[in-house]
Design a protein that fits this description.
Blueprint (H helix, E strand, L loop, with lengths): L1 H15 L22 H7 L6 E7 L5 E8 L2 E8 L5 E3 L2 E2 L6 E2 L27 E4 L5 E7 L4 H16 L3 E7 L8 H11 L2 H8 L11 H15 L7 E3 L5 E3 L4 H10 L1
Parallel strand pairs: 8-9
Antiparallel strand pairs: 1-2, 2-3, 3-4, 5-6, 7-9, 8-10, 10-11
Helix pairs in contact: 3-7, 4-5, 4-6
Length: 262
Amino acid sequence: MLKVLFFAAAVITLFGSPSFAMDKAGHGTDCTSCHTLSVKEASELLKVTGGTVKSIKPAPIQGMFELLVEKDGRQGLVYIDYAKKRLMQGFVIDLTTLQPVSAHTQEELPQKKQATSLDTKTIPLENAIVMGNPKGDRKLYVFTDPDCPYCRKFHEELKTLAKTAPDVAIYIIPFPLAMHPGAYDKARAILETQSQDVLDKAFAGKEVPKPTQDASKARIDANIKFGNANGISGTPTMVMPDGKIVVGGRDAETLKKMLEEK
């Protein structure tokens, strides 16, 4: 424990020192004077996703650009590093408020402000697959995307939770993001098969059966519509038994404690 405290103190000292404001090349803190990204250039970088870049701003985290991107009538935020080699999808969370923050204002964003709660009775459970105990007294609702790297890591925690908390029903609600073109069909396959094996393979990045039922399109579209209407725009997003919305995943042990508190 003492070593951890010394390490934390060292990190705080390093990042808080004046020298950290300058990199090896002597650059100052005004990163935009050296690093730029045009809409044309960003559009070329994101061409593979099929999205259209609407706006670019310096991200609220150092070393990245924040892009407002539109695809299939939906808009969302993604992040590209200054090296223009890495794309990140997800939320930037303020550690003080534990709320999402962005460079784009709420007026500029098409989605509603992130909701804090919803009525769990309105969640379209007919468009979900259950992990754990389907008759469990405690229920956890998870909006998730099989091609989201954060969701894939979180899925392993959910599998652990299902094994260690036998009274919990985990409703997996496929919510493919526009930034992941292949996720839509994977989400359809999960609903069509209602198979835990297919679910696990999808989140492990393995091949899953091609969807064959037109009805699954409507079911996935219903999940997307519900999420958008309730301020859910990123993955993973959890809804607790009392309807509280929690952005991002947690480890299995923390989840178990959170559920026990409800």
